[in-house]
Amino acid sequence: MYAERTSLLPGAVLWHNEPGPGPAVPVLPDGCMDLLWTEGRLLVAGPDTRAQPLDGVRAAYAGVRFPPGAAPAFFGVPAHELRDLRVDLTELWPARQVRPLAHRVTDAPDRASALEAVALRHAADSPPPDPLLRAVAEGLDAGATVAATAAAVGMGARQLHRRSLDAFGYGPKTLARVLRLQRALALVRDGVPYAEAALAAGCSDQAHLAREMRSLTGLTLGRYAELAAASWPANSDTAAPSGSRTTA
């Protein structure tokens, strides 16, 4: 069962997932990156451009999901270097630093809170996320066009694309598609009819949403709704974060 709450880390979400008898849901692109704990390891889930295939492993997870653009400063690596990847944290930070942290989280009675404490301590010594890129993500998530977003933050198209690769792992057009799809899926999970969800999220019609769903996830809207209803509690208003059901 998947559950989440707002993290003490600004803009982040703390979540945990326990294996259950229901069907597993593929991890869908969401524009985010995650710090993960599973089976005694600390991992990093990079930004996805496609649904992550399931590997059949059913394990407990805890995670801190960073909002779009926030994780590269925390991990110290451009987002595009981790695109569509799950890597051990020891590939980014010294192993002598990571291993005691992994043991601390593993031994904690509340692993999600222990992982959050690790993130809070490290974030205090990390540079803050770029506020311009945060504004880019917020503008695109509100449905603004890429051109309007670039103008609002005072960037040219090439500069915005280059900085988006570092911050989000892909260009602003891809980020806009991913965020639009997530807006639509949040409405679908709330029971909004597909056609209404498509228009409210910014798609031209239901067929447009269906094409985007297949392109970015490989699922149909109907199949996704079935999996979501079986796997997540009714009060969960966001999709399972990147990395929550896959391993490195």
UniProtKB/TrEMBL annotation:
It holds the Pfam family HTH_18. Residues 130-227 form the HTH araC/xylS-type domain. Keywords: DNA-binding, Transcription, Transcription regulation. It comes from the Bacteria. One of its GO terms (molecular function) is sequence-specific DNA binding. InterPro entries: AraC_XylS_family_regulators (IPR050204), DUF6597 (IPR046532), HTH_AraC (IPR018060). This is Helix-turn-helix domain-containing protein. The lineage of its organism: Bacteria, Bacillati, Actinomycetota, Actinomycetes, Kitasatosporales.
